[in-house]
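Morning. Coffee machine broken again, so started the prediction first thing and wrote up yesterday's gels while waiting. Chain of 309 residues, entered below exactly as on the submission form.
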Amino acid sequence: MEDSDASPACVMTFNVSDPSGAGGLTADISAITSAGAHPLAVVTGAYVRDTAEIFDHFPFDDEAVGEQARAALEDMTVAAIKVGFVGSPENISTIAEIASDYAEVPLVAYMPSLSWWDESEIDSYLDAFRELMLPQVTLLIGNHSTLWRWLLPDWPTERNPSARDIAKAASALGVPYTLVTGIPLTDQFIENVLATPQAVLYSEKFERFDAVFEGAGDTLSAALCALLANGHDLQAATAEALTYLDHSLDAGFHPGMGHIVPDRLFWAQAETDEESDDEETANSDVSNDNASLTSNPPFELPPNGTTKH
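Came back before lunch.
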């Protein structure tokens, strides 16, 4: 039995139950565990969905969400918090209140596409998230098109907004760092950019997969949150989480008749003797790569968002 000092860092995630296993808490638990942390998974509701689409959603009562979280937080020390889709403005309010009580803990928020939902529901949810949650957020993660339409709905020019433009809009609402994913480039590439209003802190290009995936955003945000909980600086955590996502997508599988699901446990597959020998040969290179994840941060990572309302 390990003593408490050697226990994995605890990451609390607020997200919806996804019976298809594509995203939601299933993605969070697998990715957080893969990144070496212990998930404290708070259920905020349940999707009715398959691997192709979301048909409906049933939110939990906000009191039930709050009681789940408080019970775990009173027992265990949390090192980072992730907020995914939580289903209602009432749940957003409850989670924001909890986050304010743990203001020293980094909070990663992932905003998925809500295009499956009723428009009035979307508007009230996004308004509450903007006003109550974003002032608590350390790092906001979302697809370029999703964040653009939410944070810059009146974008005035034909030029697509850059990651820094989106980061500037997020910063005005209290978010110090924004990771914008899926920025379209030429030649079938996409770019993922970690930015502040003043600078691009990290960027990486990936070749676009010729496939449609479900659950990529939850996978990325949960892994990144766990890496922060383990003490990695923000740039290194971003690089490592993007690499982890790339491998998860590359190993993705087709469990149903819909879209492809990332294999978040790709690293746990059985290896052949030949692969094991190759891995041993590469051990020194891996050690060098891992060393970068424990380097001193180039800047002080704030916990929850710097603006409180």
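DSSP finds ten helices and nine strands in the chain. Going to sketch it on the whiteboard this afternoon.
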